[in-house]
Amino acid sequence: MSPIRVLCVFSSLNRGGAESMCMNLYRNIDRSKVQFDFVKHTHSKCSFEDEIINLGGRIYEAPRYKIYNYFQYRSWWIRHLKAHPEHQIIHGHFFTISAVYFRFAREMNRLTIGHSHSAKPGNGSLKSIMKAHSMKKVERLASYCFACSEDAGKWLYPHRKFKVINNAIDAKAFTYDEEKRKKIRDEFGIKEEFVVGHVGNFAPVKNHTFLVDVFKVIHDRNPNSKLIMVGGNDHKAIEEKVKGLGMSDSVIFTGVRSDIADILQSFDVFVFPSIDEGLGMVAIEAQAAGLYTICSDVVPSETRITNLIIFVSLGKSASEWADIVLKYNTGYKREDTSEQIQRACYDIHTTAKLIEKFYTSVSKRGKK
Prior knowledge:
Helices cover 40% and strands 17% of the residues. The chain is an alpha/beta fold. The chain has two domains: 4-168 and 347-365, Rossmann fold (3-Layer(aba) Sandwich), CATH 3.40.50; 171-343, Glycogen Phosphorylase B (Rossmann fold).
């Protein structure tokens, strides 16, 4: 019997939070029962593409939706769905335009799953306001509603019931390992320095500018410190800021990395001053690595899995943030928190079974 083929829709297939969550599920789901295929909206080769192909997935490239090409975009989807009757379930992770392709999927009598990965996307610009207006239509056009947190669900589906799907991880893979710590530190030429770490693609919402301000205070007080920033996208402006502050020798830009579980071992404190987060899966990964995790207070409370996480207001100054980070300057014992992660239902093996059961159930039930 052929597996159910779920079509997962993304903007790209790079190492963002939503993409990483989906890939964690994909690696751990029973692929003899459920297979993932993917739609991307970019010509560029993406980080996860080779792995997807190796796992048996197929990748399709849709044109970028730009409003004025509505009919071209619609034509692509109608052709695709006619050609692929196996794609009965459309899982929309690219939720800024989910309402657009959900409309076409519904025309073709397909099931649609809306998945909210953010609580308050946008920066107040006209473009972001228009996107938010479009996103709100997802509530009406989704057969089923998923969210990464309660806040993310309430934002996108104020009038619908939704199911929170935890952005689960393989907790054991993140457990502190002294050998991995030494290996990564050797790679970056770090010896006894105090390492402040951050993981997140370079985008305004991740608040890298403020992170650098915080590290400036830390570095002034402890010159034997380094900042490691892991993530993709253009970081030229942040690099220029670091250079202007005279800290180029103390800040490491790693670019995109596939070994996040190992990179986290090399940090001493994880700092996550995001302006908005749907959940903030990397904050859970940091706790799984036994790291004290200093987050902005807009990061959802669901990330508090252990006593290692500390929420700090973005209204506090860089100096006040630095005070908190420097409390751990002298080191601490890194505990194995995997059992706490599992008890909080953030273990990927449990979540993969739940989502597999859901897909199997709705594929038998048909369109809601």
